[in-house]
Structures are given as C-alpha cells and as structure tokens.
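Q: Joint fold for the lines below.
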Amino acid sequence: MKDYDKLIFEISKPGRKAYKLPPLDVVDTPLDSLIPDEFLSDKELDLPEVSEVDVIRHYTNLSNKNYGVDTGFYPLGSCTMKYNPKINEAVARYDKFANVHPLQTEDCIQGSLQVMYELEKSLCEIAGMDRMTLQPAAGAHGEITGIMIIKAYHEKRGDHKRNKIIVPDSAHGTNPATAAMAGYSIIEIKSTEDGLVDLEALRAVVGEDTAGLMLTNPNTVGIFDKGIKEIAQIVHDAGGLLYYDGANMNAIMGYARPGDMGFDVVHFNLHKTFSTPHGGGGPGAGPVGVKKDLVEFLPVPMIEKKDDRYFLDYNYPNSIGKVKDFYGHFSILLRAYTYILTMGRDGLKKASEMAVLNANYIKEKLKDYYYLPIDTLVKHEVVFGGLKDTLSEVTTLDIAKRLLDHGYHPPTIYFPLIINQALMVEPTESESKETLDGFIETMIAISKEAESNPEVLKTAPHDTIVRRPDETKAARNPIVKYEG
Amino acid sequence: MYPYIPNTPLDEQEMLKEIGLESIDQLFNDIPGDVLLKRELNIPESKSELEVTTYLKSLADKNCSLSELTSFLGAGAYDHYIPSVVDAIISRSEFYTSYTPYQPEISQGTLQYIFEFQTLICKLTGMDIANASLYDGGTAITEAALMACASSRKDEIIISTGVNPQARRILKTYAHAQHLKVVEVDTKDGVTDQEALEKLVSDNTAAVIVQNPNFFGIIEDLKSIGEIAHKGKKTSFIASVNPIALGLLKRPGELGVDVVVGEGQPLGISLSFGGPYLGFMATKKDYMRKLPGRIVGETTDLDGKRSFVLTLSAREQHIRREKATSNICSNQGINSLAATVYMVTLGKEGLREVATQCVKKAHYAFNELTKSGKYKPLFNKPFFNEFALVSDKDVDELNKELRKENIMGGYNLGNEYPQYKNAVLYAVTEKRTKVEIDKLASVLEGIK
Amino acid sequence: MKVVKGLYYSKDHEWVKVEGEEALIGITDYAQEHLGDIVYVELPEIDDELEKEEAFSAVESVKAAADVFMPVSGKIIEVNEALEDDPALLNTDPYENWIAKVQLSNKDELEELMSSEEYEKFLAEEV
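A: Joint structure:
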C-alpha cells in the first residue's frame, strides 16, 4: 500500500459511521429549550463520515509511511532514540492507572502518588539533587521551570540586577529561547576548539548581572567537559547559579551526577534517558531537580508522605506557582518508573556503558571516512563534520538522504551549529554490534559513492515514498489545512 | 544480560579492542576524579518483568478506577467514552516509537496525521490555522497570552475568573517572569462581568481571555465579550474552549475570537491522573508566523507528489534561538493522533450526538438533583455539561457519603472560590446512564 | 557578489539609497545569498519611528531567519508590499527590491556607513 495517498477527508462518504452510542435514556428535551438559540450553531459539523474499517485502514496505511525505533536503527543525535520497552506501555494501560481522574479524593489516588513519590526519589538519586518536581511536560518546559526557579531565588534575595543568562554557542536552541521566555537577556560564549566551555571567555562575562549559566554535560559534541568544577566555581563566585540540561544524561548514569558537578538545577528528559516513547514528537516529560536552597521555589503541588499516606502539598509559599495542568504527564512518569525498576542501578549503569561504547565504536570505525573535527574519547554520541574530503560537493544533507535508501533513519544533521556540516550520531545502548556494523558499512559505502558517483547522492533518496519534499514552497505559500 | 541491551561480553571485548581500550571503565576516564561517582546508585537492583508488574499492580490497586466508580467529576478533565479504534491506532509502534518528523521521506505518516489534526481543529473552531498541539489546555492559554503580548508589544493581560483556576495560576507564573501584568475580571452570576470588563479594557490591553463553557459549566456570551475586548487597540480576544461543546455551540471563529485554545483531553484521551493531555491552538491568518509550536504544511516532492513537511520553522528555537516565538520544540504527538482518530471516528454526526447527550443528561441530572430543594442551583444560567449546586452540607462530607455508594462526587468549588463555600460542580458526560444519575440523586437526597 | 555603486552600506548587510530627505532600505546581495531561498519578509508598520540599529524587518528562509536593522534612524513612510506576495524578489534582485522607505531623521548618520568600495573591501575580509 505504498501508493496510498488519500487524506481522511477524501474518503468520506455521506451516511457512513464509525461509532455507535447507546440511545439516550433520559427525557429527550429539545435542545433549544435547554440552551438559547443564539449560542447554538446553525451549521452542520464539517467532519468526515467514514466507517470503522476506513479509519483503521487509513491510519494503518499512514503508519506504514513512518519509521520508528521498532522499525530500525535511529541514531538521531541528541534525541536518545533508545528502545521503548513494551512493559512500559502495558503498565500505563492498567485500568487503575489509566482510568483515574486527577481530582479524585486522596484515598483514591494513593497508588499514583506513591509512583510519583518513588520516582522522584530515584531521579533525585540519579541526579544528585535534593528534590524534584515532576510537573514539566518536556525538556523545554523543564528548562523554563528551572530558569524561573533561578529567577525566584535571586528575587527573594533582593538581587534584582541579575538579568543575564550565559549560554555556550554549542547549546541546543531551546536554552537561549527559554532564557528569553523567562525574561532574561542572553550572553552567548564561544566554545574552545575542543568544543568545551572557554574558561577565559566565561570569566570575562560573569559578574553582578549573571543570573546563571545553562550547560549540557556531556555537551552537544558528545564530550565530557572536564572543567566542570572550575566552571561551577566561576559562576558561583560571581553569584550565579548553574543549570544542567539533562539531554545527554544517558551517557553518565551511575558514573557522574550533575549535583556532584556543582549544578544547582537539573532537568531530565524522560523520553530520552528513561525510555518513554517519543510519540512522533511527544508527549515527553522533563522533571526538574534542585539543591536544598532552591526547594522552596519548586512549583506546586509537591508529593509528600506522612505516616504511610501520600498527599499533594500546596504549602510552598515561595513557590514559582504552577507550570502545568494537574501534576504533570503521569502516564509518562509511570513508564519511566517502570524502566527504572526494570533496569535497576546495575542496568542503568550498564545502559550508559553500552551507549558510550557504541558511540566510540562508530567514531573509531568511521573517522577515516568522515571528517572528525574533535578526535577524543566521546560519551554517548559522536559528531562528524561531513565527509573526510571536506571539499566534496556532497553535503551532509545528501548523506542523510542516501541513508534513507538503505533503510536507516539518518543522524541529526546541521546541529550543533559550531560544527560545519554536522552529522551527529547517537547509537544508544539498544543497538547490537551487528546493527552498528551494518550502519558503518553503509556509511563507508556512501563515502565511496561520494567520490565515484556523487550524483546518486545529490538526487537521493531514490527508494522512498516521497523524495525531498519542497520546503521552500511549503513556507512561501503555506497550506496548513485541507481545503478541498 | 539485560533484555534491552544486546551486546554480549564478547561483543564488548571486540569493540573495546577496536577502540584501543582494555576495559569499560576506561571509557569514562575523561570524568575527573572529583566528579566521578565512587559508589553504586542507591536504587534497587534490576528486576524481571514479572517482579516489576507484580509490584506496580500492587500500587495500582491502591487507586480507584473510574471503571468501578460512577464519576460526576469534571473541572477540566472528563470521563468520555473512548472508541477502541483509538488505542488500536496509537498503539502502532511506527507511530509511537518515532520522533519529530525531521526526515519527511520516512515520516509522512506522522506529518499527514498532524495535517489532518490541524484541519479538524480548524473545522471545529472555525479558525484559519492551527498548530500541531501544545502541552495542555492550561499552558496553551499562557502561550496564547504571550503571543498576544509579543505581537502587540503590550504587557497587560485580562483574564476572567471564569477561566480554570489552574490555568490562571500557570499564566501568572509565566507573566511574573516576563514582567507582564495579569488583571482578573470577576464573574457575576456565574459569567464574566461585562461591565467590569468594559472598565478594564484599554489600549494597554494585549489580551482578554475567557473560557467557554466556563469553569462553572456556563456558556459565556463570546460575541459580546469579543466586542468589548476589541475596544482596545490591537487587543486579542482569546477563548479557551471545550472541544466537545463545539459539537453544538457556535464556532468561536464566527464570534470574533482571535485565538482559540483548549484542552483536547475529552477527544479520546485517557484520564491517566492528569496527563499527558493535549493543548490545541487555532487562530487567524494574521498570526500565522507568530504561532508557537510545530506546524505541518502541504507541498510537493521532486516528482510532484503531494507530501507534507514541518513548515514555518523560522519562528522556532532551533533557528531563531532567543528570538523564537516560544521555547517549545515538541508537540503532544501521539495524543494529537488519538484526538484525530477520535474526531474522525465520531465524525460529523457523532461529535454532535456526544455533545447533545452530554447536554441532555446533564440537564436531567440538574433537574433530579434540585427537585427537592435540598440542593440549590448556584447560578441560573445556560450550561453545557457541568453545573454547580449549593447546600448547607460540607462538600467533602457529601463526597465521602457518595464514595460509600461507589460514586465519585463532584468538584468542591470552595477549594478555589472561597465565596462559593459548600458548592459542588457536577459533570455529566454521555457515559452516565439514567440509572446512575437517579442513584446519585437518591443517595444525595438520603444524606442527613 | 554584486555591490551597487552610489549606495550606502552597513556592516549588517543593509543598503541605503538616499533620495533627498528620504531613503530606501534593503538587504544586499551578500545577505540574500547567505540566507538562501527567502520565504517571508516581515514588513514594518507605516509611521513607526525607529532608531539606527533597531530591528525593523525580518527576512526568513527555510533554514534561517535574520532581523533587518535600521542603518539610519527614521520614520517608515512606505513599505514594499510586493514582497508580501513574492518574497523571492529579494533573491532575484535585492537592490531593486527595497524593503522600506524612510524619512531620515538624522542625515549625519550616513557618514557612519560604508561606501560601495568600502563595503566591497569589508566583504572581502568577511569571506
């Protein structure tokens, strides 16, 4: 069904139905005697009319046009596309987890509260932090929550001149966007040639106006910043706080903890490190952990335990407030906790070990064929700068598109911005040596093709259902809904 | 060995050799000694699937599920019927194990359902353009307010106290960080006080925000409120709506609303103790390049074939960095698929039928519950599927009594509105039966 | 890279064409080439009074976005609406297709800008 190309609206036929409700069993009062006419729509709903079979076939066909971790190797750098265990999905669908209203009385939600309480404890231990809020919906949401906590800390001390957040130029775009959204101006500092924080550049910009520094470690080039203690010292001495972007936590579980590195605030991406599904873009979860001094600013409610009873605690007078409806993405939190229970302290450490081993293996095997700007031990991912022959007319985009022909999801491309033609490979621990060898072989074949037959790369992909959709056309004359 | 980690000890040795290392520990040589964790993490050791499910089942058993209780609880999350097709589709791992569709050639499935989702939201709201979704209804209100402030370069937001209290709290959290001013306009007789609003709206007003049906379940007069809002120069009128109610009510697009947001949970998403849900946002063409979040557009590929791509990305953080319209870089992916499947499954007739049953059953319940006079209506205004009743009884006590009869009572309005002490907000969906409603009425009647 | 004689240039790659007390402002060939296929031009509002170096417009391509800054202070008196329908005009001829026409509020500021020769030299160093 590769050729199936219909929109659901195009298979609609008047009179078809995919649902049946029980007949109305209460008195059938005319609507307009219940709701004034002026509020009622006088138009029919313009929604499709299809049968249940239509719905299932249509979306099954669409699913066949997708590629997931369950389909094959997905080395999308910085996204940690690890396997999503099926037990997580099963647990999230337990009736007594899935069919629970968030406002049920406390005696009816003890199980959910206990899951959250225990997850918070586990995540705090992994992060080296004192308390954690599970509310944030995603990494970026965690970031803004964390930065608002930093802001509240300075405000409470009456330290109002701190209006700047420092961000390295290698940072994920959400970092500066977050700081701006929290009302800060941004100072971007250059990285050293090794992709690390330039300590001199940092010293030059910190001062009385420094609210904090946002950092990823290992950083976006996949390298552990050895200077982290000194970085922390510089920022703390200036009166600022350190924010840890946990995007790359999969590299160091059980080996290093942001709390021990000197970070004051941390967010984790449960959809990366803790195996919850990426869901085609979400929902994820981005819990935020803090050190003791910042606990009072965490968003409400927090989950507490007293005499074997779990309860929601709103009594945080200095809290930044609420950042999310209800208590966060519970069923995602539940999946992450299932993963932590399954893996245990030994399995989590093993996951980091194999993620790092796999990344270094790829680096070693491909560095003769692809340009490796920084040749050093990496953590969970490796960033190449396009082909070894940097003068080749074949771009990183061409390489990515050619990989599609071979059945792989390409790595992240053109990020981080500090590496020209960046090709960012993050294999994760879920992949076997055989899978990696297959990918390596393909990458080598592509690098050879770039010399022998560059045209085949420039016109790739050749075997996909669509080929290089025109993004310029889409942005110039946006068609963002079906008008037929 | 671990089920999710395929490398064998032999693989490890071979790979280490290729890298030129002797042990796994050496892979972590770059972590300085004063940072390296020198003990094991203090969490339990790994467990088998059987052990984990047994344990989690025991925790689940400490909850009560709405499949064993009859629920009249709403207040922002609703117990609607979810057709089986929804879970069948969102359980397909080609969907849920994929990520943001960065590579359109192998993501047409995701891209197309988002395009369909955007279309459905536009049809439902009567707006020109919708994004690929936001975290939830509460944060969607905040994103809409921030968009209004950024595009008008003004800093005052007026929000009705008829808007869900938790959404107002989220707005205040964000507004504080950006030094924006949030002014609350009160309700009068259960609806936004239009006279008070008229006094508040000025040329400094970036946005006026109301909810419809509002938190008390009452239908607001969007048209009149919009006219007042638009007395401000470049003031955006933002309405947070219940999508099920749009099966019956006039579309916000016909009523002068500039930005429609809402909580999409009623569209086929399980309650799951509060999340994940689905925020949606739809607006007029003028805001197209100011919208937060992902947007999918239609285009053609090299062979001229219709295809879909992420578009208008120059708004977003990966390009604009600190000048982005928002820091959001995800959408609610699989939940927007659930809502899409729900909307097309119910379709033209179904959504209207669900909405109609909600209205009729809620009004039946209202009549039954108020019949004896023991419980009085708090307001006397047209409502959709929620209504507030007041009595001389403490709400928590009432709910305790109901629990004994396996009924989950309504929401205690006094929690957030101290002026409405002893008032309960009851929600009635199409799932409730006459028998269940009659039972609620008789148990309530019997409480001394 | 095309540089037109007789215009003033800024380091941010805007050009200024003076016509009495008024001036046209646009982006240079270098700027458009750097951005790639331009998909959208955000135009300022008429009567906006802007200081030198304030952002008055934004130009977007698929992979990039750039603010356009006022090379000189002035009041916007006209905008090039043709760019709304066809932003690609900035790619085809960036010097013919100005973005805004301004009433200059301080002609002395022109002295701080580069001549075409100076801008050519600046580009040579930049690249």
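Q: Anything notable?
A: Chain B touches chain C through six residues (CB under 8 Å). The longest strand of chain B covers residues 205-212.
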